[in-house]
């Protein structure tokens, strides 16, 4: 991996890449004060519509806007087809892996993954052992995080198989761009993504063996950082948005409390972690879940999407084995690359990591959201030493990867337009078939030089266009 | 030994309960060590038996008409093979290496475990560990609760069977020995004759061996097993929630008799 | 519909209606306080009226010690620590709307959210700088806008019905209380009840204006307002949208069109109330004693509110 950055818009010689030509021409022709005005308009509209997220660790539960950048991230269709196939392949393999480890455990018996890596993992749920799921799908909705290295090749950074979020921004960003710059969409063909909620509902319905199941979205509530998205998706799909207290279990069946009495619920798109689902089976302090839900689930009376126990497959300690899973279950070669990963629980890997800390990214195997990580090149000596101590104390809790030189895309910043690092999260839906809408959420690290795109860490978003080559 | 058990628990509430739900793990399973002659539950309404994630027999009781008490009765006879030292199991024991909030080892527990066992991971090591914990955590009622973690009970040096068991699990798992929580009944010689009890099992030589830390016992000759799990929360006999009801009084009535089995020659 | 959703919709509209009513209450008192006062002269008693009606005067005195015009106005209008203030009502309305933003139209949400953002700015300035009449106008206007957005965009389904229920329960209660408060103030003097003094003229006129019923009164009665006519108009006439009778008719019609039969207790109460008003004349009301009658009705409306709660809104 090199340390030059791949620029999404321009070639090394400064020439514009062909799939961006139309856009740059438009950009050059549009007066800057008009752009500035449109950007203000976008802010106002987002604010008005209350498209916000709540920051963790903020006592006030302050709602913030995720900064939206009007310069889209474009991907040529031919390139997208590869990304699409790669994501489908990956998610299929991961669902097969989950089916396997909760049933025959062939991949463990074949010696491809050490059994304790899977079985003693916190994400592995005994509750799923031997339980048969309709269509053998565990991760109905998966978010695959992709970045591009210096030569432009795509790497999978992580697979989000629990409750991946961000799809509402993907949809709202598109709506905003179409509202602000309709002329752009008239001029070039951007693949549509607006049917995502339909596809999601179809996926959720197909997760139940019932003819026409009642689907609900289960949210932890208004103070959750992604509440906007939960409400958004429920509304777009035309299903109820419920909290734990709206549901109850009677004789192993789940019902919701309605103005006309108890109504049976068949599929729960839950945006709640496993640990909070059922206070009688998991975390007893959870006020967010539904007492009795797990027993009902295990009795086959209700579908949870995603299933319980998917966390083991997107754990960073399992991530290094995804290539092997693809070969094992699908007998195919991986289409998308995995980032080389050192597993600190292995003494040899650990010593390599300790010797090269300033050049590496170190992550917690269980962490997400960019909180418990070290970006070597961007850290002070003191920060590196602090992480060294943590690594030595609990090596099994960490993995390390080379620092990727994330691709950049021109972005509006304070003094004009400048390149900023981006990633891409397409959302893969698994039901009757495995599919995704053309595009995804592009996150952009707004701070100069920053590689962390999480919204909680000062990241913004861009509309993502799949355009003709 | 044949145990004949009659166990009625009454929950009395100060106010009307609008609805309640309980996970009940109060039905023993057939195994190498215990043979269930007969067993029945008396519940306010009929409930289907199912398996919980750990293979225990689970009843989920939901009552959604207003009520001010619930009576849960369990009655039956079980033969215990007093000489059976271990039990086999087809499922992997590796999930029982996991740490939970109640069994998270503190630095003190890790050190304690490693001092007792050094590099040994066999049954004698676990016996040493059991005896050392029995000496370290003095049996005393009322100082800990069901929410007390192994680390806290260990630091306080006092606790009950549940704390003993959690501390043992924390240590054993920190050494890489899969181990699990067991809840059940213990037949005693005192006036009550029967107590709800907790002990541990550790996975050694491809079988589950029992360790009753509270009584320093490795042969569970008077132990009737009801459920297993990662910790108390998974295995406890009754775990429930209710809406309304105010305060609660619990009253248990236990009746037990034992007879030594007459071996057919 | 989910019980919690119905509850959020119901309370969203109740709080918004309450904010509007509080603004109307404030407007009357403020305009009357500017009138030449007979006995006291500084208009403070009149400014205290809204606090008395909402039962928050004691709390105000506890916090601020004495009656002070601007402090009372701020306390009533914009105090974030006074849960009965207009500010807090708008906040509560917005919080409830936020919880059900999937069930209301984007127009409704954006409207109520914008009101909330704006009232925060107004609170920063203080009510005096913004202008009291201006503020009252603004609150009413926001409420009108929201009602318009609701009327013009939402599907005529269950959501709409619970929104209407909230509005009319709150409005019925408000009309009863406002009338009772003005009547109390004038009650002792028969001349004033009959509307023969200048003071009573202004009082009754202010009340009619507060309930946007001045034009209706002029058209129907064509005379100077007095207790009998004003009460008849505000209690028993169906033509005036803020009259008690209009409220109970609407409540009855909304409740009977709700599906399911778990709402029977509320439906029965609404039907009884509706029948009672339909077959009552103002003479019967006055014979019973207006104050007694009003208080009886306040309790009945509250009972109906509770029945709506236990039938539909409570998470059982």
TrEMBL record, chain A:
It holds the Pfam family CP_ATPgrasp_2. InterPro entries: ATP-dep_Glu-Cys_Ligase-2, CP_ATPgrasp_2, UCP005522. Coiled coil: none annotated. It comes from the Bacteria. Residues 72-445 form the Circularly permuted ATP-grasp type domain. PANTHER family: BLR5612 PROTEIN, SLL1039 PROTEIN. This is Uncharacterized conserved protein, circularly permuted ATPgrasp superfamily.
Automatic annotation (TrEMBL), chain B:
One of its GO terms (molecular function) is peptidase activity. Gene3D superfamilies: 3.10.620.30. InterPro entries: Bac_transglu_N, Papain-like_cys_pep_sf, Transglutaminase-like. The keyword Hydrolase applies. Keywords: Hydrolase, Protease. Residues 153-215 form the Transglutaminase-like domain. One of its GO terms (biological process) is proteolysis. PANTHER family: BLR5614 PROTEIN-RELATED (PTHR33490), SLL1049 PROTEIN (PTHR33490:SF6). This is Transglutaminase-like enzyme, putative cysteine protease. It comes from Pseudomonas segetis.
TrEMBL record, chain C:
It comes from Pseudomonas segetis. Pfam families: Alpha-E. This is Uncharacterized conserved protein, Alpha-E superfamily. Residues 1-313 form the DUF403 domain. The lineage of its organism: Bacteria, Pseudomonadati, Pseudomonadota, Gammaproteobacteria, Pseudomonadales. InterPro entries: ATP-dep_Glu-Cys_Ligase-2 (IPR051680), DUF403 (IPR007296). It comes from the Bacteria.
């Amino acid at each position: 991996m090199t340390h030059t950055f791949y620029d999404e818009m321009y070639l090394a010689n400064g020439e514009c890449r062909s799939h961006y030509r139309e856009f740059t021409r438009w950009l050059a022709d549009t007066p800057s004060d008009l752009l500035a005005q449109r950007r203000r308009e976008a802010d106002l509209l987002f604010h008005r519509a209350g498209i916000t997220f709540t920051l963790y660790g903020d006592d006030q539960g302050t709602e913030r806007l995720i900064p939206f950048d009007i310069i889209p991230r474009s991907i040529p269709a031919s390139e997208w087809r590869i990304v699409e196939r790669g994501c489908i392949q990956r998610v299929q393999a991961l669902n097969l892996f989950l089916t396997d480890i909760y049933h025959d455990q062939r991949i463990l018996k074949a010696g491809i993954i050490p059994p304790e890596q899977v079985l003693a993992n916190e994400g592995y749920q005994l509750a799923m052992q031997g339980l048969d799921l309709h269509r053998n799908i565990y991760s109905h909705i998966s978010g695959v995080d992709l970045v591009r290295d210096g030569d432009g090749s795509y790497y999978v950074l992580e697979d989000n198989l629990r409750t991946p979020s961000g799809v509402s921004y993907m949809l709202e960003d598109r709506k905003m761009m179409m509202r602000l710059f309709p002329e752009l969409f008239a001029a070039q063909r951007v693949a549509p993504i607006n049917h995502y909620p339909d596809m999601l509902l179809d996926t959720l319905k197909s997760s139940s063996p019932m003819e026409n199941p009642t689907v609900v979205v289960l949210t932890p509530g208004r103070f959750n950082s992604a509440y906007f998205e939960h409400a958004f998706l429920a509304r777009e799909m035309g299903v109820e948005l419920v909290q734990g207290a709206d549901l109850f279990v009677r004789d192993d069946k789940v019902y919701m409390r309605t103005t006309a009495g108890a109504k049976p619920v068949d599929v729960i798109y839950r945006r709640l972690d496993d640990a909070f689902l059922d206070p009688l089976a998991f975390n007893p302090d959870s006020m967010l879940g539904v007492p009795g839900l797990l027993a009902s689930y295990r009795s086959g009376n209700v579908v949870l999407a995603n299933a319980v126990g998917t966390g083991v497959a997107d754990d960073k300690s399992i991530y290094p084995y995804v290539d092997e899973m693809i070969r094992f279950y699908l007998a195919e070669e991986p289409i998308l690359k995995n980032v080389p990963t050192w597993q600190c629980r292995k003494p040899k890997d650990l010593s390599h990591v300790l010797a090269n800390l300033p050049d590496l990214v170190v992550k917690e195997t269980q962490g997400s959201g960019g909180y418990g990580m070290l970006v070597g090149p961007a850290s002070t000596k003191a920060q590196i030493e602090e992480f060294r101590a943590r690594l030595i104390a609990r090596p099994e809790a960490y993995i390390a990867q080379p620092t990727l030189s994330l691709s950049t895309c021109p972005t509006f910043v304070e003094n004009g337009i400048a390149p900023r690092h981006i990633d891409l999260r397409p959302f893969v839906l698994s039901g009757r078939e495995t599919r995704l809408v053309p595009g995804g959420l592009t996150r952009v690290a707004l701070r100069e030089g920053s590689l962390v795109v999480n919204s909680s860490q000062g990241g913004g978003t861009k509309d993502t266009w799949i355009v003709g080559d | 030994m044949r145990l004949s058990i009659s166990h009625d628990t009454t929950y009395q509430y100060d106010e009307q309960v609008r609805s309640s739900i309980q996970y009940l793990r109060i039905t023993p399973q057939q195994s190498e060590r215990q043979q269930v002659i007969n067993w029945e539950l008396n519940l306010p309404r009929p409930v289907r038996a199912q398996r919980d994630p750990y293979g225990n027999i689970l009843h989920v009781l939901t009552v959604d008409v207003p009520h001010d008490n619930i009576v849960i009765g369990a009655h039956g006879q079980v033969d215990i093979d007093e000489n059976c030292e271990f039990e086999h199991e087809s499922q992997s024991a590796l999930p029982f290496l996991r740490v939970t909030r109640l069994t998270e080892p503190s630095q003190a527990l890790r050190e304690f475990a490693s001092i007792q066992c050094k590099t040994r991971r066999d049954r004698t090591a676990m016996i040493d560990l059991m005896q050392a914990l029995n000496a370290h955590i003095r049996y005393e009622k009322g100082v800990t609760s069901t929410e007390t973690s192994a680390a806290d009970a260990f630091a306080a040096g006092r606790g009950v069977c549940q704390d003993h068991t959690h501390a043992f699990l924390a240590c054993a798992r920190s050494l890489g020995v899969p181990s699990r929580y067991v809840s059940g009944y213990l037949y005693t010689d005192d006036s009550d004759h029967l107590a709800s009890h907790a002990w541990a099992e550790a996975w050694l030589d491809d079988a589950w061996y029992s360790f009753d830390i509270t009584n320093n016992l490795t042969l569970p000759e008077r132990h009737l097993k009801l459920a297993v799990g990662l910790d108390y929360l998974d295995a406890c006999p009754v775990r429930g929630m209710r809406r309304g009801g105010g305060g609660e009084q619990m009253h248990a009535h236990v009746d037990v008799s034992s007879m030594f089995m007459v071996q057919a020659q | 519909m989910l019980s919690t959703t119905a509850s959020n919709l119901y309370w969203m509209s109740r709080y918004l209606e309450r904010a509007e009513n509080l603004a109307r209450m404030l407007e009357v008192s403020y305009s009357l306080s500017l009138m030449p006062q007979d006995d006291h002269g500084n208009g403070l008693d009149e400014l205290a009226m809204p606090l008395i009606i909402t039962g928050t005067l004691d709390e105000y005195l506890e916090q601020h010690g004495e009656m002070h015009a601007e402090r009372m106005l701020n306390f009533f209008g914009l105090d974030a620590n006074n849960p009965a203030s207009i500010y807090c009502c708008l906040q509560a309305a917005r919080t409830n709307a936020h919880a059900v933003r999937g069930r209301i139209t984007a127009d409704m949400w954006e409207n109520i959210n914008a009101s909330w953002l704006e009232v925060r700015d107004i609170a920063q300035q203080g009510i005096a700088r913004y202008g009291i009449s201006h503020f009252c106008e603004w609150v009413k206007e926001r409420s009108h806008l929201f009602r318009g957005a609701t009327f013009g965009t939402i599907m005529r389904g269950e959501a709409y019905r619970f929104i209407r229920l909230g509005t009319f329960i709150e409005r019925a209660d408000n009309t009863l209380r406002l009338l009772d408060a003005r009547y109390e103030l004038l009650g002792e003097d028969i001349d004033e009840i009959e509307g023969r003094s200048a003071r009573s003229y202004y009082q009754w006129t202010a009340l009619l204006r507060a309930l946007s019923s001045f034009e209706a009164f002029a058209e129907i009665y064509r005379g100077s307002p007095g207790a009998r006519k004003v009460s008849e108009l505000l209690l028993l006439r169906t033509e005036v949208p803020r009259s008690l009778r209009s409220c109970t008719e609407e409540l009855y019609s909304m409740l009977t069109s709700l599906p399911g039969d778990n709402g029977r207790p509320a439906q029965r109460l609404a039907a009884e109330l509706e029948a009672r008003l339909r077959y009552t004349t103002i003479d019967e009301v006055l014979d019973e004693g207006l104050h007694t009658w009003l208080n009886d009705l306040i309790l009945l409306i509250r009972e109906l509110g509770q029945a709506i709660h236990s039938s539909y809104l409570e998470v059982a």
